[in-house]
Amino acid sequence: MRKHQISFAIATIIAAGSLSTVQAATWQAGDWELGLGGNINTFYTVTTCDAGKLGAGGGTMAGLACADLDTGTAATDNTHSVSNGLLPASLNFSAKTKQNGYDLAGNINVYYGMASQDANGLPGDALDFSTVDARQVFMTFGNEKMGTVKAGRDFGLFGFDPIINDMSLSGTGATFASAGPGHTTLGGLGYGYVYTDRLSQINWTSPKKNGLEATVGVFNPMDGVESSGKATRDGGQPGIHGKLSYDWDKGNGIKGKVSATAISQTVQLANGDKPSIQGMDVFAKVDVNKASFAGSYYQGEGMDTLGLGGIIFPGFNSTTGAAEKSKGYMAQATYKVGKTKLGLNLSESKQTNLTKVKNNKVTLGAYHSLTDNLTLIGEASSQTSDLDGVGKDESGSVAVGAMLSF
């Protein structure tokens, strides 16, 4: 079934794994400094799935919260799960040294799912295993004069700042396939920003000067999706992405960051056309003492609201070669009361050309630091998808859990 295929495709790409390589423990081994860290997180989540509120048939972003991957249908009653949040559990290893005036480093970060899955990546039965995924395997080298070169597999630049600053990075946000949870939930993916994805890439980042920094690089191109259901072919060129950012800290409790990114890659359709997947986003965050405000906006072509190449809906029309157009925003405010951070996140995305749909999400969260390394988390989310000419899907969830970082 089409819904089953969509759900399986999303299950294979979604995962905003731990986007940080900060290590809690370091030790010397000759000239090398080695580091080891990671996180373990688990949530009990109740997702509201009502057949009467799945007017679009459950095939939208909001409907996918209720997707049952085993049957390829949507659950029509509340579902209960114990699984990861937006982050999988992780084990992150690093090694760095200085040789001949160059800073050298390597990172290998492996991520683990909590819930069992079978050999096809679908919800598992008794005695099945959880998933393991090496999402970040890269090296860096450079110095203060030349900047830094990164080569390997890591998260892309487009969409990175919105997800790394989403308060649900340590929580759940919107759920995905809650009837048989996979590697992660969605957070705000598909609602306010597009998944940054894991790309094989080579980048150069300029030396930071007065808070200003630039990155540009190439990445191995990704397949898109045509309206016929076929995957696009390699367009014969590498993908290109870039980022410009500026951060500041006035030293009086006020600090912030702004950034802009762009991405482009050529694909080839079955009819011979060679259109491009392309996008841009802007991001801003300001911290004022105990309060923090963040916002982002993106727009793209050849991508849907979730994935670079179109996952839920196709990125390109197979006959005309026309590209899907999408756009969206995220707005967030948090405030710290003692050791507890309270937050509100509003997200919206739209597709406006091939498949007209609007997705909205609201998340309320509370994040209490019981210790420096253990955070207790509670979130409630509500999401709606309005598919033009078809109907509206609605779903929601309440999640409570904990994250241990080390």
Short description:
Residues 26-383 form the Porin domain. With 406 residues, the chain is mainly β. Helix content is 5%, strand content 51%.
The order of strands across the largest sheet is 2-6-7-8-9-10-11-13-14-15-16-17-18-19-20-21
Low-confidence stretches: none
**Termini, distance in Å?**
42 Å
Structural class: mainly beta
How many domains in all?
A: 1
Signal peptide: 1-24
Pfam families: Porin_4 (PF13609)
Keywords: Signal
InterPro entries: Gram_neg_porin_domain, Porin_dom_sf
State the main characteristics.
single chain; mainly beta; Porin; 16-stranded antiparallel barrel; two-stranded antiparallel ribbon; 3 helices; Porin_dom_sf; Gram_neg_porin_domain; signal
Structure description:
- With 406 residues, the chain is mainly beta.
- It has one domain: Porin.
- Helices cover 5% and strands 51% of the residues.
- The protein has a 16-stranded antiparallel barrel. The protein has a two-stranded antiparallel ribbon with strand order 3-4.
- It is globular, with a radius of gyration of 21 Å.
- Keywords: Signal.
- This is Porin.
What order do the helices and strands come in, and which of them pair?
Layout (H helix, E strand, L loop, with lengths): L1 H12 L11 E5 L2 E17 L12 H4 L2 E2 L4 E2 L4 E5 L5 E11 L2 E11 L19 E12 L3 E9 L4 H5 L33 E8 L6 E8 L13 E2 L4 E11 L4 E15 L7 E13 L2 E11 L23 E13 L2 E12 L5 E13 L4 E14 L3 E15 L1
